[in-house]
Hints:
Layout: H1 3-8, E1 14-25, E2 35-51, E3 56-61, E4 67-72, H2 85-92, E5 100-107, H3 117-133, H4 139-154, H5 161-168, E6 173-178, E7 184-188, E8 196-202, H6 213-228, H7 238-241, H8 247-271, H9 280-292, H10 299-310, E9 315-319, E10 326-332, H11 336-342, E11 351-354, E12 362-363
The protein binds alpha-D-galactopyranose.
Amino acid sequence: MSAFADLFGTEPEGTWMAPGRANVIGEHTDYNDGFVLPIALPHRVRAEVARRTDGLLAVASAQQPGVLVEVPVADLRPGHPAGWAGYVAGVVTQFDLPGGLSVRIDGDVPAGAGLSSSAAVTCSVALALRDLLRPDLSVEELVDVARRSENDFVGAPTGILDQSASLLCRAGHALFLDTRDRSTRQVPLDLAAAGLALLVVDTGHAHSHADGGYGDRRKECERATEALGVPALRDATVETVETLADDVLRRRARHIVTEDARVLQVVDLLTGGGHPRAIGPVLTAGHVSLREDFEISTPELDAVVETALAAGAHGARMVGGGFGGSAVVLVDTADLDAVSAAVQPAAGSYRTFVAVPSPGAHRVS
Ligand code: GLA
């Protein structure tokens, strides 16, 4: 008998997987109608799912014993259930499921690391419910289902970067996404063939998007947008942002405008036939902008970037929403061990791994 049947007395109707992501470049641009360039990670969530008849949502995790949550579907509301089961519940409430659902999650995306563990949960469940109940839903609609679970149910005011990456990325590619018109382009990214690796360094200093800083940055971007009189910061230019009188708003807007330009530059470099190591300095410039203009880096992430560069990396930057989490480092494969060792703090506690562009979400069985 499977672990699922042990818990719920029935076999799952199927298993769906959705990956976490690392973003090559394009941070905080997604809620400003801008550009992003993520890859899917080999780390993923697998969701086993079966419909029920008793009206309950029951959630279990392979990482914890027993059934963690049992709530009538009719009682689901923002904050109830609390904790990560809320990401599952936020998806379930968007489908017509009066009979209820059993879900068993098995995940290895580090939580709070800026690698989209929450999108891996929402996207795996959303894909399962699409296949079982609403095969008419497009991938874009699924992105929105997953995002609304975070925004409206859990209360994390994210954009569409993480959900799009999890659902749309392909193995061996980075996903170039224009978050304004949702157009995408798969950019081949075979770093290993070029003698390179993208090293992820998880500092273990967890962020939490539901509180504070992330939402503040969104509001500052909205105020800058209003002050500039543009539809979105995507429409501002390096010249126009300098006209903003407020120093904070000017720097926030400048990050978005320069970051959009960096995404386009990285895509050009990756598709132009030159050596991909050329993107390194652009990644580092992205970090400087996140540190100085957007002010969402941490001393730990700054230290990772500095030590990586000093040890010979081509470029390095913090990744994700900020205020903790992970950095990505572009390094020659030959220098991987030396750079991985150099970025460790004295306690040697940082988790490091090579991010190989991996498949996006799909049904496993
Ligand atoms: C988090 C959010 C995304 C995006 C990034 C920053 O991961 O969930 O929508 O805003 O931060 O680029």
